[in-house]
Amino acid sequence: MDEIICCLNNASDILVTSHTAPDGDAVGSLLAMGLALAAMGKRVVLYNESPIPAVYRFLPGSERIVHEVDPSRFDTAVVLDCSDLARVGRIRDAVEKMPIVVNIDHHITNAEFGTCQLVETDACATTEIVYRLITAMKVPIDQDIATCIYTGILTDTGSFRFSNTNQAAFDISHRMIASGVNPFHVAQHVYGTYSLGRIKLLNLALDSIEISPNRKISLMSVTQNMLRETGTQLEDADGLINYAKRIQDVRVAVMIQEMPPENGVSQNHRRHYHVSLRSDGTIDVAAIATRFGGGGHANAAGFSVVSTLPELKANLLQLMSGVETPVGS
Ligand code: AMP
Ligand code: MN
Ligand code: MN
């Protein structure tokens, strides 16, 4: 922590970034860190390769996030909620060349990239770590920063329901509410402003659920056709996997999202897929995601792959065939 504070105190032009296809923690940590560094008088650019999902655009400062940047003019990069540097997207190589790269993250699979690391795998969200860092840097946590920190914790813990929900989630949320966060206002934006198309997409996604013969694995798919049919985007598939995970006896839920054709290969039915994995705690899905070049947490992980859908499903079922035998029996 002290080393990071020293780096940030000495920095003047800072690029703050987080992973592509950002979730609430990636947006929240990017904004909280960006607002705090700006309050310290630093020149900061907030960057994310992907558009900010509509449900997070209410977050203070989100209009400052840019999607194009000249990466040559920074002395420091702060990379948030990324288990490896490739997660930032196409600016990866440019970030790697920056004099100082600060890696702040909570993934068990963190590759320890960068010149200094603040990786706490017990943290429920990257914003939990950012909260401690901002406090240690003695930057006052105003309502705007507090809203970003709270939203990261709220979304990464699945509203305080997932296994990563720890005491800090409640302690910090309590403090953020004391700093002016309105939990109802945040919940309304994050969970209460879905488009009709998003609800219709839920219907199609639920209908796609398949269960393995042993009932331990559920598979859900979201295709480009479903998005077209409902007038939605991939960001509208966020959180759908939790329905597949809730099914009785299911240990691992798999969500296969077909990426747009420009990002991938479309010959011979091979497509670019993002695969999300969720576990009930008995299977380490970070280990499975790592086998496919991805990463994450023991109970929530993901990876990207180019494959055909039947081949991908067969590979996943094969890798998880051990799920057949209950752990400990
Ligand atoms: P997702 O299923 O995309 O919501 O991601 C679940 C968890 O796995 C998150 O903590 C992600 O940051 C992480 N994750 C997803 N995709 C990848 C990937 N390609 N490489 C490393 N980590 C990933
Ligand atoms: Mn994330
Ligand atoms: Mn996170």
Automatic annotation (TrEMBL):
Extract the InterPro entries matched here. DDH_dom (IPR001667), DHH_sf (IPR038763), DHHA1_dom (IPR003156), Oligoribo/pAp-PDE_c-di-AMP_PDE (IPR051319)
Show where the DDH domain sits.
14-153
Could you tell me which residue ranges the DHHA1 domain spans? 230-319
Q: Name one Pfam family in it.
A: DHH
Single GO MF annotation: nucleic acid binding
Coiled-coil residue windows: none
Record's protein name:
Bifunctional oligoribonuclease/PAP phosphatase NrnA
